Amino acid sequence: MKQKSTLMGLVAILSLTMALTPTLIDDASALKSTGNPLLKYGSATDNIVCGGILCSEVNTITVAEKTIRIEGLDVFYLEAGPSDAPTVLLLHGFPTSSHMFRNLVPELADEFHVIAPDMIGYGRSSMPTVDEFEYTFAHQTQIIEQFTEKLGLDQYTLYVMDYGGPIGFRLFENNPEKVQGFVIQNANAYDEGLEEFWDDWKVWWNDPTPENESKLHYLVAPETTKWQYQFGMRNPDAVDPSNWITDQAGLDRPGNVAIQLAMAFDYRTNIPLYPQWQESFREHQPPALIVWGANDYIFPASGAHQYERDLENVEKYLLDTGHFVLEEDLDFVAKQMREFVNSIQ
């Protein structure tokens, strides 16, 4: 029955299309240009409907895609919201890019100035080879620091996730007066947060042989990229596959595997800085909103609890989801961020 109805609908559409002769279309265009109603087929209206309400009543959000030159390289970033509103700077993790914030940026941009850059070697930023660029967390931090200076970001709330954590915490240590607060999502700053997932990494860091390195090659495999998005999720089959398809396309570019291994090996430089970052937390006491995927195997919840040792103003939520929290709990995170950012202004 449904197939028959569909067929009849197609016949009706074809019949209408055939009835709209070139003469009739020309007549309609002429009437429209003079402001007269289109009496020959329907009535003219400026009231376009968007999902059940008039589009004129919808506050549309424009997310700009921009690049800026730093150290001779293109840094790509998303930007939305009023430039004079409180700024939220979003720092992505591995193996993703500003793409992980594609839904959060417009969600917040009606009230805040939201910016999400791609690190060098990630997303749509430049990707020099490992011989042309020093792929370290310290260097990535320098790029982001120059990025904030060029954009004139004097104060901002930092959203840090995964690799974005060590970059954001370095940025805070260098410029504590600029960071109004942290939104921390599965980003580690404590020894307790490096559990079983990191065992092979630690072996490689302590004994950097080709054999030990080879144990980390799985990190760039398609099945691993997909696993990062699905493991620990309440409904893994509902996670948008554009995530791992986009990320894997970046990993599959010639030369990118070497970049990811360089960054993975340099992650070891973050651990000795944990005590310094913790001291900076204690000294400057930035407010923190923690929205942590409790089922994350990479950065388990044990890492989330430690921030309360050093920070006095912490609002913490352990969410029943995995590594990429925003894929399942975007609305909740956005709501908490609105309240948090407004409270620290």
What's the arrangement of secondary structure elements?
Elements: H1 2-19, H2 22-33, E1 49-50, E2 53-54, E3 64-70, E4 73-80, E5 87-91, H3 104-108, E6 113-117, H4 137-150, E7 156-161, H5 164-174, E8 179-185, H6 199-206, H7 210-214, H8 222-230, H9 242-251, H10 256-266, H11 274-284, E9 288-293, H12 302-305, H13 307-310, E10 314-319, H14 326-343
Parallel strand pairs: 5-6, 5-7, 7-8, 8-9, 9-10
Antiparallel strand pairs: 1-2, 3-4, 4-6
Helix pairs in contact: 4-5, 8-9
Q: How would you summarize what this structure contains?
A:
By secondary structure, the chain is of the alpha/beta class. It has helices spanning 2-19, 22-33, 104-108, 137-150, 164-174, 199-206, 210-214, 222-230, 242-251, 256-266, 274-284, 302-305, 307-310, 326-343; strands at residues 49-50, 53-54, 64-70, 73-80, 87-91, 113-117, 156-161, 179-185, 288-293, 314-319.
Report on this model:
With 345 residues, the chain is an alpha/beta fold. It contains 14 helices and 10 strands. The chain folds into 2 domains: 55 residues, no CATH class; 280 residues, Rossmann fold (3-Layer(aba) Sandwich). The strands form 2 sheets. Strands 3-4-6-5-7-8-9-10 form an 8-stranded mixed beta sheet, with helices on both faces. Strands 1-2 form a two-stranded antiparallel sheet. Helix 4 crosses helix 5 and helix 8 runs antiparallel to helix 9. The N terminus is likely disordered.
